[in-house]
Each structure stands twice: as C-alpha cells, then as structure tokens.
Amino acid sequence: MAQYYTVPTRVGAAKLANAIALGVPIEIVEMAVGDGGGNLPDPDSSRSSLINEQRRAPINASETDPDNPTWIVIEQIVPPEVGGWTIREVGVFDTDGDMIAYGNYPETYKPLLSEGSGRTQTIRFVLQVSDTAAVTLKVDPSIVLATRGYVNDELDKHTKARSHPAATTTAQGMVELATPTETRTGNDSQRAVTPAGNKVALDEHRRETDAHSADRISLGDLPNLGNPQTVQAALAAMGNVVLRDQGPGNGLDADTLDGQHGSYYRNAGNLNAGTLPRARLSGSYNIDIDGAAASANNSSQLGGQPGGYYRNAGNLNAGTVPRARLSGTYDINITGNADTLDGQHGGYYRNASNLNAGTVPAARLPNSVKVTTSSVLNATKGASVGAVGTYAFLHSSRDLSVGATTAASNLEYADASGGEGNRPSGTWRAMGQPYGSSPNTLFLRIS
C-alpha cells in the first residue's frame, strides 16, 4: 500500500453519494494543512478535522487529471510569509465547513522569511471520485496566487503569440510590414511602409523617363511660348478657366460673387431670409403689430387686454395663488371633520388595544417584561419535536465544543447505542460536548 494517500471522510462519502444520487454537487472551497501533532498520520475516514491544523485558506486551482478522469487535483499555494512548521497532513472542506477528504503528506518543513529562507510552497491534493460531476471546486480569483514559474510561462506564451489586436489609425496594436510591391501598389490600408520599401518606390519613380515629361504635365509647348501665335493660343485656351478657392488664406479676391458686386450684399433691401440680429439695429423704428403681441418685447395690449387687467386677481380663472403672493389674514372654510379622523378622536389612535396590524417598535416597549414559568410552558407545550426553541438528545458525527453550532446534516436522533438514523432539520447548538467515544449530548435548535 502507498505510504502517502487520501481518503474520503465518512461525512464526505455520505455527501458524495447523496450528490451523485440527487445530481446536486457539493462545493469544495477550502484546503487546510497541519503538522499532524509532530507525527506522520495514517489517513482515517472517521476524522472530521486535522490533528493539528496550521493554516486554512481558499483553494487556488483545480483540474481533472488528464490521465485519470476520476481524479480531481486540488491545489493551494502557501506564500513565503507563512510557515514555521512541518506539513504532514492535508484536508479539504465544503461550504458547510465539513471535511470531505483527508490525507497525509510527505514531511516538508515550511520556513518563514524571518528564519532566513523563504519559499512558496505548492500543495496538491488528489481526490478520487466515481463521478467528478458530483464535485464543484470553487476558486476565488481575488485570492489566487501564481507561482513564479507559472507567470514566466504565461509571459513567454504571450510574447511569442501573434494573436494581438491589429493597429488602427486611432489605437496602438500589432503592425505587419508592407513589401515593396505592396508599397508601389498603394492599395493596402493595414500594412505599414518601411523606409526601405519607400526608397524602392522612389528609386523606381526616378528611373521612369516619361514620369516628368512635359507632355505628362501639360507643359509640352513651354519652349514655344516665345512664339506670338503660341502665346495667343494659350491665352485663348485659358479664357474660360475659373479660379478655384483653395480655402482660407489663399489670397483670392473675386470681382463678383454669384454675379453680384460687394455693394449688393451690403444693401439691407436685398435681404430675403432670416432676421437681423439686435446688435445690427439702432435708433427708433415704427413697427406695426397685428393681433395679440405674443412675441413683442413691449406692447400696449396682450391678448386684447391692457396690463392692468392681468394684475387684477379677480380676473384669474385657473390655478392657485402662490403663498408668496398672499399676506394678511384670510377667512378659510374647511369642509369635512377636522376634529376626528375616520370618525375617531385622537385618543382612540393612542390606545394600543386598537392596533390591528404591524408590530410595535422596540422603543415603544418597557425595559423589562415579566415572564412566568406558566407563560413559557404555555408558549412551548404545543411545539412539535425538532421545532425552533426545543431541545433534543442527538448524536453528532463531528467533535464539537460546548456552545458550538452545526448543521442538522451532521446530527441524528440518539438512542442508547448511538445514532438511530433519523436526522432533524435546521441549525443546532451543542449544550454539552460531543467528542470521541461520547458523541451524544443535548442540543438546542436555534434556527
């Protein structure tokens, strides 16, 4: 038999069987390491905790072994600042805090940095199950630690990878260089031109004897411009040429715009659209306003009425007067019954016996309430077995201290020989100490 191995605990085996039967996986979230109390332990399925736990933390990584599909490999990394003890035992725990599997570990001393030697220790725990779907391993990415080797491998993969985003005109990225042929063609908007490729294109352009021919740039007759006939022909050809504006600052000064001289556009009588800005007006103007002056700055009437009409509150026919416009004392009639509410005086609502809904806030209760034995018995005598607030003599599958709480899945109703198989519900508090060979004690259900 192998010297180092792992075994499911009794609780873990029961939970795994239940998970496979119901199709609801258990969730393993933590791994603990211990020193075995100074000795290398033999894995025991009856254990519910480590012999001498030194550290417990969330798992760092998990995977199914590629060569053994029923093996789940769980990993935890112990950082350099943790240690000062020898690792001899390992356990994994679910979300209920139950130890699912337990194993021993080759004796390995984990030094502290203060001892003059620091080391990142990777602990791997192999759990063999018949159906890996019955186990969910929860890894919290916010606490995952990576070894230096893992980081170096990932950086090396990233450096050698070619699957980086391509550069654009607005974002940095990976660029592919254009060949001389692609540079000469000039149709590619993705590749970058190198100085060497650009030089090849320029050199080829210089070697093209007809690239700078006067015929190609419409100056073939330039040497003949001294001939009067040639000059007249050139002027005739340019007779219908229209100068083109190339933007602000070009120095172009036209004689007309759309066939009109500048004075035409400075005559206000030629305006045919828009309105004049107020800054362009000065002096007094005679303006006729037809109808109600809905948009005039000042008028003798609005809606056919002078201003005094609108300042007379008697002409209001809608809305309410703002409080700021009221002053003095007013006689106001209030309809209904202000002396009562729903036909009841204030004293009715201050009588607690008239409450018919809700609960009384704690601040409205006295500091002390008298409780008698008979009132407690009357409140609990109708409670069913196992109800919240009742006691039961139970058998615990875990060692517990007095006052500790545990889930009902760890308990059975006890008989003289131990657990009799039936389990309660909810959460219970140990009123005694179930431990080792005496796992039966009194429990109180608290929720």
Overall pLDDT confidence:
79
Q: Give the C-alpha Rg.
A: 47 Å
Q: Which quaternary structure do these chains form?
A: single chain
Proportion of strand residues? 15-25%
Shape assignment: flat
Name the helix and strand elements from N-terminus to C-terminus, one letter apiece: EHEEEEEEEEHHHHHHHHEEEEEE
Fraction of residues in helix: 10-25%
Number of helix segments?
9
Largest sheet, strands/sense/barrel: 6 strands, mixed
First-to-last CA distance: 45 Å
Query: Which class of secondary structure composition applies to the elements?
Result: alpha+beta
How many extended strands? 15
List the helices and strands and how they pair.
Layout: E1 6-8, H1 10-22, E2 26-34, E3 53-58, E4 61-64, E5 71-78, E6 85-94, E7 99-110, E8 121-128, E9 135-137, H2 148-160, H3 180-185, H4 195-207, H5 228-237, H6 262-265, H7 307-310, H8 346-349, H9 373-380, E10 391-396, E11 405-407, E12 411-415, E13 418-419, E14 427-430, E15 440-445
Parallel strand pairs: 2-9
Antiparallel strand pairs: 1-7, 2-3, 2-6, 4-5, 5-8, 6-7, 10-12, 10-15, 11-14, 12-13, 14-15
Structure overview:
With 447 residues, the chain is of the alpha+beta class. Among the domains are: 147 residues, no CATH class; 59 residues, no CATH class. Strands 1, 2, 3, 6, 7 and 9 form a 6-stranded mixed sheet that branches. β6 and β7 form a beta hairpin. The longest helix has 13 residues. It is flat. The two termini are 45 Å apart. The model has no long low-confidence stretch (mean pLDDT 79).
